[in-house]
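WARN no homologs supplied; continuing
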Amino acid sequence: MTQDSTPKTPSENPVDAEPYGRPLQRLQRLQRHSHHRIVIVGGGSAGISVAARLRRAGEDDVALVDPSLWHYYQPLWTLVGAGVVAIEKSRRRQADVVPQGVSWVRDAAVEIDPRARVVVTAGGARLGYDVLVLCPGLELALDMVPGLSEALSGPSATTNYTADLAVKTSELVRRLRGGRAVFCAPGSPIKCPGAPQKAAYLACDYWDRRGALGDVEVIYATGAGGIFGVPEFARVLEGVVERYGIRARFSVELVEVDAERRTATFETTDAKGKTRTGVDYDLLWAAPPQRAPVFVREGALGGTSAYGWVPVDRYSLRHATYPEVFSLGDVCDAPTSKTGAAIRAQAPVVVENVLATLRGREPTARYDGYAACPFTTARGKMLLAEFDYSLTPHPTLPFIDTTRERYDMWLLKRYGLPAFYWHGMLRGLG
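OK structure emitted
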């Protein structure tokens, strides 16, 4: 999981921690103030993948800073929200995924001094580094939309961006038999930008199978200017929207929610200025705005925007100011989608460039912007959108046309990708 301020289930709360065995024993042996060749901040997909690859490359002084009890395969939350998969299937103990030989500092980073090359944790530990890999993920910025936090705590609004609310999504979708369902996403960068669409499509498929779709008015509202940025895939998704009768609204931002009245307020901007419109709902599914964790965006390594994304060279993933710092995953400002597939392509580049930096050489490995969005358009159908910085299709599966909805791609989403994640990607393979 990312180090964020989002609502957490009781099992994710550190006070509910159980004995941690091997990784905690490593932690206890660490000095309170220590120095490492490599420090990785963040133990999600990016941090664990990079740590595993570094160990495979022979690096034996790697420290990983992350406070989490559980490690989640978050792409599976789409299917949790659809009632297809139990939430327990999406998680493993963090202790079981931290690579052997990596010193796990089970604490949250609260400050980084890139001039002194020191990471400070909430518990007061100071970790010096030769090279830093910054990948703490992002946080859900619920406060940027007044009323959204209260709505998500109530009976009619949900999202798939936390474990407990993904479970709630399936409950609300099953319960709704008529009325208006609003699915929305901000125009600013979010992880898995296709998630709001996937939630809408799978809900529509559920209602359609039960003969209730005709009684539900479905609205998809997004701050983006279109359904998807790659034309070859956008055409297919436009057909899915039409098939379900979804009313798509573009370039509109959710700016306020009144949970008591069940009203979502959207804002549009044009040449005449800003216009706000209230939309009543029976079910609201909202992707919250997202930003870098506070210690990043208010620190020396964050960017200047309100979101604080870490500025990097888009190809080397090296920090724009500090050459001994690399960043990947959701927190960096590489101009591509924030997806697990992007991390899979970024991790080997970062590892190669970290090793070059440690050896006094200039980084030469390049990331081409590869990302993928697996659009689940129905139970048993998925469209796999793969692309790069050029926003053109970048297929990686030979002899398979992934520009159309396919059953075999659904099987890949449901079974293949989770297995690859746990047994391949997190072990530094593939």
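The longest helix spans residues 340-358.
OK
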